[in-house]
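Figure 3 (text version): structure tokens given as input.
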């Protein structure tokens, strides 16, 4: 029998509404130990009010199993962050169809109350499904009575009165809710910012169709037409971080340098959609949620983008992205697909060692870097792990302290019309467990190191490349395939040949 996900979602929202009406009459008691309740206590109290409906019982049963350390039901998972007051439950039926419930709470500035939000949603075949029973509801908890009562979204400034469907995302860290209006002409994001008593709304991007929302746009940049497409032009780190997300084109404005470090290092300033402040997201985020992360490194924090799809980050002209920590990636991608970084100079304000490349990617598929200049990192210009169908085109990698690139367990990494120069100090191009690596029309010059130029465990291909490097340090040339007579490779033992001239590679087709 085929499951009707829309029916299940509507039924879940109906039960939630009925629960709220019952709770309004008598309140929901929150039992806890210690000096104050945690998100676990709020979730337990909320679920204890549910009836015997199959979906509500499923959440309650899995929550009890989670608390007791037992196995969850098939397709169920929890994300629990007690420190930041956030819980998310996912119940997956297929790869693209699942229900989810999020819980989050805030402290009120009067010191007497807390606000709990519950957000229910359903994804059916990869698309959000909503109904008249909106997924977002609130309860106000009284510290004195130790009970919570339903609270109107309108009273909290969290009501969005539009006809198109609206879905919500609660913050795992921070204070802001992201609402997405799904109009036929496109999506509009509204950031609802908690001020301690209610939510203030800010609109991201232009209205879609007949959707009209009166909200300031200063912290989100401006929506423009660029290259016959819609872009969000940004001038500051705050605007840049707020604009990031799937299916977006983000344009760093002309003659603009964006230093990400002040925003990433200050949790009170790190306010962006789907944000997270954490120490490590290398293993990804459960539920496939797209997330903008401030991730801890040895001497600061780095920007990590998780589960992004079809995101374009582009420079308009003479545009830069820099970071201050020597051990941080400038841009780090985890489980991202079909994303593009284009026409940008990206690097560190100071060289480092041991950790921190320019661009890192873990897993992901069909990502591209084009017309970029990557420089001054603590390790490699590119550090790829488990990445498939990656393309580097018309770009420079230079002045990196460990080498040019490191490829671990990657498939089909293709570098075309690129220059690699002034890099040091160990093995310059490493490929372990990687297959289908191709360099075409690339130049290697003015590089040096104690290790070889190439170190590959599997075959790699050179096509029409110009390689200036000592012959005895070329490395694993027994793994090198040179299949094309029409694109012969040229080798010179002189790495610092003065005859080498710049060509139109990198941002704005600059000559190097």
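Below: residues designed for each position.
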């Amino acid at each position: 029998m085929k499951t009707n996900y829309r029916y299940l979602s509507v039924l879940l929202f109906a039960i939630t509404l009925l629960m709220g009406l019952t709770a309004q009459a008598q309140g929901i008691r929150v039992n806890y130990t210690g000096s104050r309740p945690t998100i676990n206590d709020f979730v337990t109290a909320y679920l204890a009010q549910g009836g015997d409906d199959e979906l509500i019982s499923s959440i309650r049963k899995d929550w009890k199993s989670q608390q007791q350390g037992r196995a969850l039901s098939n397709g169920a998972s929890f994300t629990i962050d007690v420190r930041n007051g956030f819980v998310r439950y996912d119940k997956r039926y297929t790869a693209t169809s699942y229900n989810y419930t999020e819980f989050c709470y805030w402290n009120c500035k009067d010191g007497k109350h807390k606000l709990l939000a519950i957000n229910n949603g359903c994804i059916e075949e990869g698309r959000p499904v909503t109904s008249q029973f909106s997924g977002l509801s609130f309860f106000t908890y009284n510290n004195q009575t130790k009970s919570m009562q339903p609270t109107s979204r309108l009273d909290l400034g969290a009501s969005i009165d539009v006809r198109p469907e609206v879905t919500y995302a609660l913050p795992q860290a921070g204070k802001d809710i992201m609402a997405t209006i799904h109009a036929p002409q496109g999506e509009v994001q509204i950031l609802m910012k908690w001020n301690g008593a209610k939510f203030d709304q800010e609109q991201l991007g232009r209205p879609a169709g007949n959707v009209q929302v009166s909200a300031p746009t200063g912290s989100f940049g401006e929506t423009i037409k660029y290259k016959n497409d819609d872009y969000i032009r940004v001038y500051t780190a705050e605007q840049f971080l707020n604009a990031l997300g799937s299916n977006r084109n983000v344009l760093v404005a002309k003659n603009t340098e964006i230093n990400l470090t002040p925003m990433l290092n200050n949790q009170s300033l790190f306010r962006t959609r789907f944000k997270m402040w954490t120490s490590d997201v290398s293993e990804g985020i459960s539920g496939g949620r797209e997330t903008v992360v401030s991730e801890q490194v040895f001497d600061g924090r780095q920007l990590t983008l998780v589960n992004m799809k079809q995101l374009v980050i582009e420079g308009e002209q003479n545009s830069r992205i820099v970071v201050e920590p020597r051990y941080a990636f400038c841009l780090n991608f985890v489980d991202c697909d079909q994303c593009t970084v284009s026409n940008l100079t990206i690097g560190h304000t100071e060289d480092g060692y041991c950790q921190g490349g320019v661009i890192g990617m873990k897993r992901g598929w069909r990502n591209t870097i084009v017309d970029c200049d990557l420089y001054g990192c603590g390790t490699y210009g590119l550090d790829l792990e488990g990445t498939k169908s990656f393309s580097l085109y018309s770009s420079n990698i230079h002045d990196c302290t460990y080498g040019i690139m490191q490829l671990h367990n990657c498939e089909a990494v293709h570098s075309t019309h690129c220059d690699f120069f002034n890099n040091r100090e160990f093995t310059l191009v490493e490929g372990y467990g990687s297959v289908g690596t191709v360099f075409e029309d690339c130049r290697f010059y003015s590089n040096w190191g104690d290790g070889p130029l190439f170190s590959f465990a599997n075959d790699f291909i050179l096509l029409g490349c110009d390689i200036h490097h000592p012959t005895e340090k070329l490395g694993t040339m027994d793994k090198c395939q040179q299949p094309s007579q029409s694109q012969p490779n040229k080798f010179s033992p002189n790495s610092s040949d003065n005859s080498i001239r710049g060509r139109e590679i990198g941002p704005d087709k600059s000559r190097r």
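Helices lie at 5-26, 39-48, 54-68, 237-243, 261-265.
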